[in-house]
Amino acid sequence: MPTGQPKSPSSRTLAREDVPDHNYIPTSDAAASGSKDQQTPSGAFKRKKKNLYGGPRFLLVPGYEVGTDYVMPSPRSQAFVPGDDNFLASGTREESNDEHLKDGESLEWQAETPSRRVGYEDMTAIDWIFEYSKERQRLQVLRHNATGILGYIREILDSSQVWIVLLLTGVAAGCLAAVIDVASDWLGDIKLGYCASGEDGGHFYLNKYFCCLGFDGLSQCRDWISWETALGVTTGNTSWLTAYFIFTISSILCAVTASFLVQEYALYAKHSGIPEIKTVLGGFVIRKFMGFWTLVIKSLGLCFAVASGMWLGKEGPLVHVACCCANTFMKLYGNINENEARKREILSAAAAAGISAAFGSPIGGVLFSLEQLSYYFPDKTMWQSFVCAMAAAVALQAFDPLRSGKIVLYQVTYSSGWHGFELIPFAILGIFGGLYGGLFIRLNMKIAGIKKVATWLPSPIAQVSIVALLTALVNFPNAYMRLQSSELLYYLFAECSKVAHDPFDLCKIGSATGGTVFLLIIAALLGLLLASITFGLQIPAGIILPSMAIGALFGRAVGILMEIWVDAHPGYILFSTCEPDIACVTPGTYAVIGAAAALGGVTRMTVSIVVIMFELTGALSYVLPIMIAVMLSKWVGDAFGKRGIYESWIHFNDYPLLDNSEETYVPDIPVREIMTRIEYLVVLTATGHTIDSLSNILATYPYRGFPVISNAKNALLLGYVSRTELAFNLQTSRQKPRYLPPDTEVFFSHQPQADPQTTLDLRPWMDQTPLTISSRSSLQLTVTYFQKLGLRYVLFCEKGELQGLLTKKDAWLVLNGAEESRNTVQDHRLKATARSPRDGQPIEERSLLSYDTHSPLIPLSPESSAF
């Protein structure tokens, strides 16, 4: 069809806000015919034919209330069922427990927010402005009705709901962390033997730590029975091979069990969950990611995953567990559960509780949430995070899983300080941390990229079993790698003067020291390789503890070398500050600093790592060396790339997060050269529509929303209507009790002469105050709006007339596209490429906008993947 030839004054052609990812069968006869040359529906005209892929996913509400001139949604919504032939004629569907609602109030829409909403679809962005406006409106009504003593009590109860959720979340996170600690330690130790203390071996449930509590070393502990001893195999190599075999089989069984639980019952329980949490806190909706079943499988699978001995940690997954707890408790209070902005504030606090329970570091948890996760972190969220993290730490301390008063096993204290000459090796450890972080991220993402496109790889469970087999074969011969990560850190962090038993000769200086250093370095290198392969498997797995272990292994090796040097040359002027008869160098502190540097290199965090390490060691004097090491690790790591491991996985998974703290290069070009201009938009006019014509438009164009203008000649912007709200109203208007005919007039502007009983007024469902800026603005300013305000789309106007549109996902694809999907700025042109499907997910189209003014739109191929 020639550009510029309208067929109707009701709409124009347009680029989508977003394209859903389920195939849709239209309701109109013309659309249902399946003809490639289908005619433009009545009430719309096209200026340029475009390739469309995928179809809409609707949220159909099974109940509603009727007002005088509009239809109001019921308080629950549900997802569109793929394969439904007629979305307007769909009947009542099963209600979903994971719906994200937007409006359940019966207030007049003119009170503050000028629109009603149905619900958020999966994999879409929330409307921050609407959510906060809805909360302000709710509080206004509450205060207006709060008269007398009862009103005052209602206000107090309403304000206390958040704190009840926070305290419950903190306590639950602390208790679950303790249970996971005990269970994973027992499962990990059962690979080596069992506890036979008590009558007839009645203490089988005890792990090695509690079984041998009170004995000076494992050699003197007669209650712990190794499997080779229990089987009567006590001779040399045969005994060692028997232990090796049982260790390997047990590791594989634990890993496969964890992967099976994830694959069969809750796929969202895989990985650490932090990239997804960060995306959710940025305003993205991922349904069932924080559901109760995900909580159960994540907790259970984490016990087996940690016990498998694979190079993974539980600290990141515990953040996911805490957020799942918060999401579960928020369902107790509708006014919290139905406001997506308030939910994200509480989830930020829950993330702090997860780190607090993992490390016993409440302040570090608050800073972790602030520095790494939170997209929007107001002062009240800081206070809420503090309370939630404190509750988690108190619950964990009260549970006391180690029966020693320590919250975590590798919590240590140091009695000696550091000397000026040690700043040089501390700086070396910082540089090592940055190199490790850069190498790990590149290696891990390279492996993930291969798995994404390779068709010859086995099933996810088979991949986990193969990696578990490889890990067990490598771990067992090396005494350091055979230990659980937390136990390994305990020995590496320990101060030699306080160690009663040294099973790994870490505190001995002599001829055997060279072999110890060699084993430590080999363990660090093998740990780097195994962690790179493990992180990203279909199994609950974090990267925080493995990174700390790798850094601690290397740091302890450096500390031992420094100790040998000082002991060999005590008269050097460099060591003149050392006191006689007192250890000048403490190798354990090098392990702590190495662990902090490695963690900083892989995550690019700074302040929160320093505080966490300080809370672990309690040594204020070592804060400065840790700060220096972390600073250097970040600088060196940034030389490889600005993204940490979590940002890299967000980027890899194509989550549309425009991080307002990320240093993203934004091309210095006018936004009009990248926006979708009005001649390529599908817009709706204020009048001239019927229920049938709008149904045909929805059946023809799979866009998530449509700008509304006054008329075809004068494109004065009136607002923006979402596809979800439009589809909901068209459906409910033809059902009981209204039963409006298909030719019913529909309008988006005030019509004083219209009969509300025989017409359909969609003004309450239209966003009448969308954020608009001048089309002469820069792309940098537009991106700032997306980052700071959490917008889903921006409309561009001149003197009130619509000029174009840019969506958040289009902006993200321009700035942060992955290797196969990003737009790069080359020769002053923005070019689009397609993404390939992954993990069997449905495909969908994404629009990318070129810089060429003669070819404003480059549609992607149908192979582009869904989020």
From TrEMBL:
Region (Disordered): 1-49, 824-848
Polar residues: bias regions: 1-13
Biased composition (Basic and acidic residues): 824-847
Transmembrane segments: 162-180, 243-268, 289-312, 318-334, 346-370, 420-441, 461-480, 517-537, 543-562, 582-603, 609-633
PROSITE patterns: CBS
Subcellular location: Membrane
Protein's UniProt keywords contain Transport: yes
Entry GO MF terms: voltage-gated chloride channel activity
A single cellular component GO annotation: plasma membrane
Family: Belongs to the chloride channel (TC 2.A.49) family.
Official protein name in the record: Chloride channel protein
Organism: Blumeria graminis f. sp. hordei (strain DH14) (Barley powdery mildew)
